[in-house]
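pinging the channel bc i need a second pair of eyes. not urgent but kinda urgent?? the chain im working w is below, pasted from the shared doc
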Amino acid sequence: MAFTGFGDAAVDFYEGLEADNSKAYWTDHRHLYEEHVRGPMIALLADLETEFGRGKVFRPYRDVRFAADKTPYKVQCGATAGPHYVQVSADGVMVAVGYYAMVPAQIARFRAAVDDERHGPVLAGLVEGLDADGFTIAGDRLKSRPRGTDPEHPRLDLMRHRSLYAWCSWPPSEELHTPALAERVATTWRRLDPLGQWLDEHVGVDLEDAAQSVRRRR
């Protein structure tokens, strides 16, 4: 099915889940999740697949085994297509591009590229441009500099990153429930694409990284 917007009950569903994150609420309202949230998200990814690649919707269940917060359900529906990310929640829509988490081998490649006088300035320019356009630059960062890094390094702030992505969000509006949202997501991903391409080229993902990532999630 073509994407026609998220359902009218999408925001209400997540407002209710935030207030009552229980199995009883989930069981009673799961039909709203399937019809107004998950189904439209699958359709959105299908509409964007030709340009951005095949997408995947994340499971709605939280992994609480090692978490202090034992609430069982995520209060947003997130999906990815490569380095592209989109989510819907009671707060509206969030769109991002980047690497939300990196394993040690990826962090090493990232810092080597940031340190490189050919590739590092390119990333610094991309980040500066996105910041100027109103995007939030985020990611897990060290509070101090990485061991062995010059305290006067021209890209010290980037060297501190252990993950890197840029994002923006839009509060709930009528657009959320219309097909026009797909083009807004696509336009935003296109603007953020140079960051994703830089990370794909200089950091990348390989089978060893993926295996380490699975072990870390466990």
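so Residues 210-218 have pLDDT under 50 and may be disordered. and Residues 12 and 90 are 7 Å apart (CA to CA). — does that match what u expected or am i reading it wrong
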